[in-house]
Amino acid sequence: xxxxxxxxxxxxxxxxxxxxxxxxxxxxxxxxxxxxxxxxxxxxxxxxxxxxxxxxxxxxxxxxxxxxxxxxxxxxxxxxxxxxxxxxxxxxxxxxxxxxxxxxxxxxxxxxxxxxxxxxxxxxxxxxxxxxxxxxxxxxxxxxxxxxxxxxxxxxxxxxxxxxxxxxxxxxxxxxxxxxxxxxxxxxxxxxxxxxxxxxxxxxxxxxxxx
Length: 211
Fold this sequence. Notes:
alpha+beta, 10 strands, 10-stranded antiparallel beta sheet
């Protein structure tokens, strides 16, 4: 896979050893979650909005109501995805940190319409809940008209990953130091009170799996 672009906005300045410059690392971060933070400027003020996303080999997709002020095209936005894998507890408070995986994507959003819009919604749905697109009812014309979906190129992106123990092994202070891992896992499905159908296999099999 090709390397990520290194622009003035995405090149690693600090903690360069945590930087990743390959596209495979970007996809690994994107596969590991389904909520991103979309940073935009609206009427001169910054706004950061959490939203569900989907992606393919070239673009990340975000969606929401047509009334949403954050889903505008024409101006550069910044999309971030972050996973916290643990607290790094060092011998000194100054050296405390976080084990994490993160991606930052810059781009000018493109408004999708027609078949491309529907395919992007399928991509987003399948990333969030694999198997659900073919199981549930798909959006009708009225629902599609009420939905905005934007595509942002993955061309300009930056990835950073921090793993491992504290970096102050030479500190003589005699206290415990190490990592407190953090993991998220899907729990057992909770059915709607009106549902009589059994839990479908594609949902049931996610119980106990990690994000």
